[in-house]
Amino acid sequence: MVQSEKLINMVIDTKDMAAARIPVIVLGAGTVGLPLLKRFQENHKRYGVYLISDSKNLIFNEDGFSAKDLEKIIAAKTNKKELPLPDGALKRDYGLEDIKRFLDTWGKYFLNKGTPQIMADVSPSSDNLVLAKTVLETGGHVVFANKNHLAGSLRQFRELTKTGRVHYEATVGADLPTIHEYGNIIRDGHTDIRLEAAASGSLGKLLSGLEENLFSEILWQLTPDLETKPMIDLSGRDVLNKGMISSWKLGFPHETDNGYVNLKSFIGDALEHYNTNNPCDPLDVNLLSGAVKERERDGGMVFREIIGDKLDEYYKNLFQNVLERGKTLRYLMTVSKNGIEVGPKEVSVDSDFGRLRGSDNLFIITSKINGGQPYKRIIGPGAGSGDEVTAKAVFADIWTAADIIQNQGGYSL
Predict the structure, then answer these.
(1) N or C: which end of the chain has fewer CB within 10 A?
(2) Helices 309-324, 268-277: crossing angle, 10 deg rounding
(3) Is residue 314 predicted with pLDDT exceeding 60?
């Protein structure tokens, strides 16, 4: 507790940091956090990263970490080591209440200086929602990469976004400006809005790859790109979260408990087919998820036995039958006044979605404007997955937040 008080008092007594650089907090120093820190290193004259946390520790520097400090931090985390302690910095174990008190005190300090802080949440932790609310309460801006904070409920989405200081482009389109375009459509008074999108880079790679390859071969290559919990991607839950956020931003109050949301897993039919034909040797999502996460075990033998031997034939036949009809499968989400539909869908091989390859995302919005005139907006194709892509989108949102602060007179740079 003494160290925590010292950490907070350092802020109270600190020099006039706000006159120099925009104060930034980075929560998460993992696969997305690392490329994000590299961008701050390249732009250290504009941004002062004062606090960095991972799941175990946080480090704080009252003067902001220098470019050399960030270089050391990046090197340590790249080699999967603990956050280092640069000269002049303070380090302590990660504690939610401690960091909450710190952000509250620091935020008030900077708000009084006319220089609100920016918090970038690139961690999968659900605890960070509390910290985000603390930053917002002290006039700061929050940038989310974590979809779960916004997709939990309509009430929570509205509570967070009503301030205009929550930025979340990375949660839906990654490198594509979907949230921005949704805002334009609502602002301009469009009606009969309908969104159809291939919104998963991982499932995009998987389904386009299945046109020519075995399921186990593509999944083996794809595993490093999947979410921390593979079934979040394979079940379609990640796409559904994007659909919920898109729906609410477009003005549709659909929620999972009001009958307007339908999710069909990509992997569900394959498991049902296998289990129906092999009742004595069932395959469930936990077994499948474990095989994906531990694909290297026994030289990949377990992966091949559980996935290759049991599911390859199903997907080979499925895609062969679809392709013979000039069609293919894509995992799509559809959002309209009628609800949210998420699942695999047959499309023509010559269609916009059928031509997608790899991790490219594509969003197609149709609507009416100016008394019924048809409108169509195509966003993409563009990269829909990858740590670098996500970090790029997060940094773009941080840049936007910084511009807003500057335009409000908070900085003179």
Answers:
(1) N
(2) 120
(3) yes
